[in-house]
Amino acid sequence: MLILAKLKTKQQIILMKYFNKIHILLPYKENFFHKSSGAVSLYVSELLSKSIYKKDISVHGLAKKNTKSLNKNFIPIKTSFNPIFSKTKTYLNSYLNSIKNNNPELIEVHNRPSYINFLLSKTSSKIIIFFHNDPLSMQGSETVDERISIIENCSFVLFNSEYIKNCFFNGIDSIKYLDKFNIIYNSTNPLKKFPNKKKIITFVGKLNHAKGYDIYTNAIKFILKKFPDYKSIAIGDEKRKKIFFNHQNFKELGFVRNVKVIEILKKTDIAVIPSRWQEPFGRTALEATRCGCYTICSNKGGLTETSDHAIFIDNINAKKLINSISYAIKNYKEKRKKQILSFKYIKHKIKNNSAKLDSIRKILLKKPEFNKRILNIYNIGIKLNHRLFNISIGKKFSNGFIKNGFDVIEISDRDYYKNHKFDDYLIETIKNFQPSILLFGHSKVINTLLLSKIKINFPHIVICEWNEDYLGPYGPDSVKNFKNLKSRENFVDLFFVTTNPKYLLDKLKNCFYLPIPVDKNIEKEQQFRKKNHYDLFFGLSHGVNRGALKSNKTDEREYFLNKIINENKFNCNFFGINKIEPIWSNKFYEEIKKCNMGLNLSRGKPVSLYSSNRLASYMGNGLLVFIDIKTGFKKFFSSNEVVYYKNYNDLIKKISFYKKNDNLRKLVAKNGYKKYFKLFNSKKVTHNMLRIIKKFYK
Question: 531 and 507 in one domain?
Fold first, then answer.
């Protein structure tokens, strides 16, 4: 089982609090420590040392007891691995749990393409991936499809050499992605003065066939015999060592810390890197030239990119290496000239490459100016011939945003989805329109993967989701409805819900109350102006999309409604029960115009400030409305604006009273009508949403 470590020191707590803009995530086997640091850790530490974002960056890697890290920005990930569970997944879950309430804007993943999909599914942070090795040999980037997915879903892809970049784009048109990748080499700092050289020939690397250690030892036998005043050093280890060499002027030092390697290279006259395998870059060659060594390399992989003043040998073997070393020893002036040029003209400096990386970070972290463009996605109901326009909250949002001076594009996701590739359509629409706000509600096609793509490619967009379902503990479908919202919590910036956030089934971050808006272009009747044929109106449905009653479905409100019909002499105009089909669009207005009063009755147990959108339809059309007092709408409406009832008997008593007192019915209905339009008209509701969105955007 995973055991998440608690931060113990004040320093670690401070790091977690303040270094939350950029997180660097190391491979779980990578050691970010002085005594055992690997090439990736050195790369990270060096670039971090010169970064303008140093105070905004934390480095996350596997914890190690009693070991000093390379940098004070390091935050250890403490986990306990169990053979039953994947070490990678356990490591990533530990990291994600540690940042649960403090998501960074940017996560920089090093050398682990297999982490990407998992992180994309769990966080809305933008992601950069750094490749330090051949992508074709790494899990998660072996296939063309995997690599296309990486470059399309990550905010940026970086390589430590041109060679590694070319490997990544094998089978892929790189021109298409020019704005999403770059090369940031391993780097080093220049020395202040040229070091004193001794007659030492040095090999640094694994003592194996791939690194060409056998080529080196076969060559050094001859060199040490021919030039007995020279000594040879091999730095590195190999658990399955098969190459052995003994000589009085030769030493194998085993694994040596990077700091000590540099000190040896400063004294080294000739450095040799005779790799057979395709080196991703060749850090040893870079450090050797920086230290003024006469550096001899094979021309494999990225080695040729390390320096303009090293010696590169095609198809290297022992004979060619002997000739190259012998030539350097015999021709002191040419050797010294190469050494001086190597020392003086370092190809890859930490300061320059750190600035290059920071420029990429700056672009990804920068938010463009907030514009007045909104992409509003909801079920417009084209395939339903716009039957839902009279109850469409999405339409009221569009009207309200336009009244607030915004440009709105509407997309009907359900109508478009079946016949087109909706994801591609939406991404391309965003590219063209460049909205600052993406608003959607009750969408079955906008999933976390699509939201993740939007977050990565358009990080400036504020993604908002609205929901008019009851999401508290007493609704028939509230568990399912809430889970749908909760599943998108890491990808949606702001939620607007018609349930009082205090009564949600669980916490939902950045969640705000949404009153159902009214709009004079939609709620167009004023029933308080006249006496009508029917006393009471109610409309029920078994689903807005189907638009008809289902024979096998019942609603708990039917008992309550039939009791009103059967036990009283009210003239009721009820729809959606007793085999009377629901009504929509203009038919809704035709029927509501015949009524004086409306019963606001939502599914489930009444809860504070929740109502279905029938409340807006009733009050916005001038009906006198009866509301259960437990809904808490007294916060907005007085008893002179709506009628509150405590129970069934109280409701019947009050319906009878207002039936007999029609002038009072008209007055209270008119007051409620005016108050609702004053508080919750579409312009005002969307203005409040925009205020919240703009505050979040900043």
Answer: no
- Whether residue 547 is predicted with pLDDT greater than 80 in this model: the reply is no
550-559 long-range contacts (CB < 8 A, ≥24 apart) are: 555/603, 556/476, 556/603, 557/601, 557/603
Provide the 3-class DSSP secondary structure of residue 131: strand
Instruction: Clarify whether residues 430 and 481 are in a common domain.
Output: yes
Would you list the DSSP string of 239-305? TT-------TTEEEEES--HHHHHHHHHH-SEEEE--SS--SS-HHHHHHHHTT-EEEEE--TTGGG
pLDDT of 455 reads 86
Q: Are residues 343 and 420 in the same domain?
A: no
Q: 595-632: per-residue pLDDT in tens?
A: 999 999 888 788 889 998 889 999 999 999 999 999 99
Q: pTM above 0.90?
A: no
Which of 33-37, 86-90, 484-488, 589-593 comes out lowest in average pLDDT? 33-37
Burial 534-566 (b: 16+ CB within 10 A, else e): bbbbbbbbbebeebebeeeeebebeeebeebee
Looking at the fold, whether 342 and 383 belong to one and the same domain comes out as no
The 8-class DSSP code of residue 509 comes to T
Number of domains the chain contains? 4
CATH number reported for the structural domain that contains residue 48 in this entry: 3.40.50.2000
**Domain membership flag for residue 571:** yes
Tokens of 348: 């890859």
Structure tokens at 324: 């190259």
Q: Is the pLDDT of residue 3 over 50?
A: no
Report the chain's terminal Cα–Cα distance, integer Å.
40
CA within 13 Å, CB half, 519: 24
Q: How confident is the model at residue 550 (pLDDT cuts 50, 70, 90)?
A: low
Question: What gap in Å lies between CA 449 and CA 153, rounded to an integer?
Answer: 9
pLDDT at 20 over 70: yes
Three-state secondary structure call for residue 123 = coil
Q: What pLDDT, in 10s, does the model give residues 646-677?
A: 999 999 999 999 999 999 999 999 999 999 99
551 with 676, same domain: the answer is yes
Q: Where in the sequence is the domain holding 394, given as residue range(s)?
A: 373-513
Average pLDDT, the chain: 90
Question: Contact at 8 Å (CB) between 75 and 15?
Answer: yes
The answer to whether residue 560 is domain-embedded is yes
User: Is 61 among the domain residues?
Assistant: yes
> What are the pLDDT digits (tens) for 95-132?
998 887 678 989 999 999 999 999 988 888 899 999 99
156 in the same domain as 107: yes
Percent of the chain clearing pLDDT 70 (strictly above): 93
Indicate the SS3 state at residue 2: coil
User: Where residue 438 sits, what CATH number does that domain have?
Assistant: 3.40.50.2300
- Whether 410 and 505 map to the same domain: the answer is yes
Radius of gyration of the chain (CA): 35
Is 236 part of any domain? yes
pLDDT at residue 244 tops 90: no
Residues 131 and 103 both lie in one domain: yes
Residue 102 has a CB neighbour count (10 Å cut-off) of 11
- Choose the final residue of a domain: 127, 158, 183: 183
Last residue of a domain, one of 294, 312, 347: 347
The answer to whether the beta carbons of residues 54 and 22 sit under 8 Å apart is no
